């Protein structure tokens, strides 16, 4: 654990990350001392910080800190948090001395092997995501909706929960982005009103462009999901899980998904 | 500052209050060693914790901690945060060892005298609050909307900002609840889809019931606000500010507001 470049496992109780969730985070998988997709993660961190007006630490310092962590723990889940830091009392963000940056590591999760080989069971959550265009797509620290949704999918003993918004659009997983193979084309939910746009999602979108597979970022209805030939979720930690069971339908063949998985697992990671 | 009953000014970086904004807070004004409205604040804290499934510390322990703080600082703003504590990695709230409780104090803010004598200028914020019925009313730690709105009202050099939701309803101030005196009756926005229901709001609602003044909790449109005879905002820290200028209209007489102010400042505080 590093807090502002020094070993530590605590932050001040006046940090706005705690007080208001006023910060950004990234979660990455590290293998053999290398954080997969780090440049993409940094780029997204930088965009998210800019969207909230938080000073983003430069890539040089962060890369040096990341390297120092991964020298000791070459294989782990590594998490980075950047908050607006501490300021004067009150919501207004003016007068902050500078952002706070934190690194933490966790063991790589061991998921049941069949989730990878046969796909997962996904739960349709009751919780609906609210629309907030100013925060949509950003991986900020205001994550109570995800907490409530994850509690539901946990209670249903499902590997992941899929979440709709208040307008009955499917937005994605509680901690992942969703893709459909529909009529031979790729479809993924529009995230301009809610949801988090992860970098694995960007990589799938990039794969589609490179491979001339039509891909649509659009509103996705439950009917679309139920009609899809294949469904899969992606994230930087779980990588890709196909969905074998959702909302009383099952799927068993994932030819397009498996092709994309090969590419995501490839040297580009 | 107290962290779980002991002097301290930091919390662990794995606390879910930081990671996800997974917690509740209260901010109170203390005068002569007494936190105003503490039983009401505790009641609200307890309700909010229950809504998120967070174990609420018992009132005895919290009162003892509060007393110990106010013996040293009899006049201050005192803030209490209760988070879900630290658990295993991931959004799902299961497996948390126990909640974290924090106390912090701040000097009593000195507002310009004319805000109290003549009312404030309020700014109409561009930011619209998203609808999330599962979190509406709760004073949780997911406060980025308030941060963005407060940044706007600060930039406009206004004492407070008024915020609408995505459906063009006025919801309240960035850090306060709004009341209108409209056709001789009291009106305050419905907070079932967004906003925070503060205890000063409850006290005004109680005052109206005791004094047989009709009060309506309902959707409030900008037109209602512009037609109101009087406007005022309330919170536990700022108590009550009348609004003398908002959206190019001005107000100068506040007879109903002043009557309520006398009652709120009275021995019931």
Outline the secondary-structure elements.
The structure is a homodimer of 269-residue chains.
Chain A: E1 2-3, E2 6-7, E3 10-12, H1 16-20, E4 23-31, E5 34-35, H2 38-52, H3 59-72, E6 76-83, E7 100-106, H4 113-118, E8 120-129, H5 144-155, E9 160-165, E10 170-173, E11 177-182, E12 185-189, H6 199-210, E13 215-218, H7 222-227, E14 230-235, E15 239-246, E16 249-250, H8 255-264
Parallel strand pairs in A: 8-9, 8-15, 12-13
Antiparallel strand pairs in A: 1-2, 1-7, 4-5, 4-6, 6-7, 9-10, 11-12, 11-14, 14-15, 15-16
Textual characterization of the structure:
Two copies of one chain form a homodimer. By secondary structure, chain A is α+β, with helices and mostly antiparallel strands. The first copy, chain A, is built from eight helices and 16 strands. In chain A, the strands form two sheets. In chain A, strands 8, 9, 10, 11, 12, 13, 14, 15 and 16 form a nine-stranded mixed β-sheet that branches. In chain A, a hairpin with a 2-residue loop joins strand 15 and strand 16. The longest helix of chain A has 15 residues. The two termini of chain A are 24 Å apart. In chain A, 52% of the residues are buried. The mean pLDDT of chain A is 96. The interface between A and B is large, with 58 and 58 residues.
Structural shape of chain A: globular
Mean pLDDT of chain A: 96
Query: Biggest β-sheet of chain A, characterized?
Result: 9 strands, mixed
Measured by residues with Cβ under 8 Å of the partner chain's Cβ, the largest interface is: A-B, 58 and 58 residues
Uncertain segments of chain A are none
- Structural class label of chain A: alpha+beta
* Rg of chain A: 19 Å
Strand count of chain A: 16
Q: Beta fraction of the residues of chain A?
A: 25-35%
Q: Please state the oligomeric state of the protein chains shown.
A: homodimer
Q: Termini separation of chain A (Å)?
A: 24 Å
Number of helices of chain A: 8
| Helical residue percent band of chain A | 25-40%
Order of helices and strands of chain A: EEEHEEHHEEHEHEEEEHEHEEEH
């Amino acid at each position: 654990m590093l807090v502002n470049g020094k070993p530590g496992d605590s932050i001040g109780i006046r940090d706005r990350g705690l007080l208001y969730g006023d910060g950004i985070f990234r979660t990455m998988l590290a293998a053999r001392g290398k954080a997969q997709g780090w440049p993409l993660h940094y780029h997204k961190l930088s965009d998210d910080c800019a969207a909230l007006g938080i000073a983003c630490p430069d890539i040089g310092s962060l890369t040096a800190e990341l390297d120092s962590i991964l020298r000791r723990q070459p294989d782990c889940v590594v998490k980075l948090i950047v908050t607006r830091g501490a300021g004067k009392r009150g919501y207004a963000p003016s007068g902050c001395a500078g952002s706070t940056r934190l690194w933490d590591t966790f063991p790589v999760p061991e998921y049941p092997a069949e989730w990878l080989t046969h796909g997962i069971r996904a739960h349709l959550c009751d919780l609906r995501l609210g629309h907030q265009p100013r925060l949509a797509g950003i991986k900020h620290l205001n994550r109570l909706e995800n907490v409530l949704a994850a509690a539901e999918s946990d209670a249903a003993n499902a590997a992941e929960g899929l979440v709709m918004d208040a307008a009955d659009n499917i937005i994605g997983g509680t901690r992942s982005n969703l893709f459909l193979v529909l009529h031979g084309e790729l479809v993924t939910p529009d995230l301009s009103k809610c949801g988090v746009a992860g970098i694995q999602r960007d990589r799938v979108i990039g794969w589609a462009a490179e491979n001339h597979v039509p891909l649509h970022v659009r509103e996705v209805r439950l009917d679309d999901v139920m009609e899809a030939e294949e469904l899969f979720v992606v994230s930087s930690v779980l990588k890709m899980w196909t969905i074998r069971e959702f909302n009383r339908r099952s799927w068993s063949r994932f030819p397009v998904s498996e092709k994309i998985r090969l590419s995501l697992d490839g040297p580009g990671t």
